[in-house]
Specification:
Order of helices and strands: HHHHH
Structural class: mainly alpha
CATH class: Mainly Alpha
Number of strands: 0
Shape: elongated
Length: about 170
């Protein structure tokens, strides 16, 4: 995962160069322009998701031999399941240009946010009981934060799919 991050970075640059060349040379209009602008934004979000995946991998390597409380692992696994599902579903909504599926992705973000807040609370409680567990608590919070960002970035992509398909800006609308 860590080694693949550099490949993702290079792909992001290549895609951005291709999109900018397309804009400069083809002068797209209306739906084509929305698609191109949305693709440019999504390209950046996907690269950031790659960064978060690498960060999770680095965190896991740091604590591979450290026991983690089962309740934190359970919540982190649930976060991973939902975040990965959101990413999968938003890529599918982009491929199929399905705004309804994209909106479904947006609705899942609050589940990830709630789990993140629960993990923060649990990590604080763990530290209040036993400060020697600081490595475990911080590692779980770092991993949870990265998964929470994957959910947020998947939501950003979903909002871009809705914009591309329906010409509606739905960001920051509760």
């Amino acid at each position: 995962m860590i080694a693949k991050d550099k490949e993702v970075d290079q792909l992001e640059v290549k895609i951005e160069e291709d999109i900018l060349a397309l804009l400069a040379l083809q002068q797209p209009v209306a739906i084509d322009l929305r698609f191109i602008v949305g693709s440019l934004k999504m390209n950046n979000d996907l690269e950031r998701i790659g960064d978060h995946a690498a960060n999770i991998a680095k965190t896991l390597l740091e604590i591979k031999d450290v026991p983690i409380p089962a309740e934190l692992i359970k919540k982190l696994n649930e976060m991973k399941k939902i975040s990965c599902s959101m990413l999968h579903d938003v890529v599918s909504s982009f491929i199929h240009q399905d705004a309804d599926d994209a909106l479904d992705v947006c609705e899942k973000d609050s589940e990830v946010d709630n789990l993140y807040n629960e993990i923060l609370h649990d990590a604080k409680a763990l530290l209040k009981k036993d400060m020697t567990k600081i490595d475990q608590a911080f590692a779980m919070v770092r991993a949870a934060r990265s998964l929470e960002r994957v959910g947020d970035l998947s939501t950003n992509i979903a909002e871009d799919v809705v914009f591309m398909k329906d010409a509606k800006i739905i960001r920051h609308r509760g």
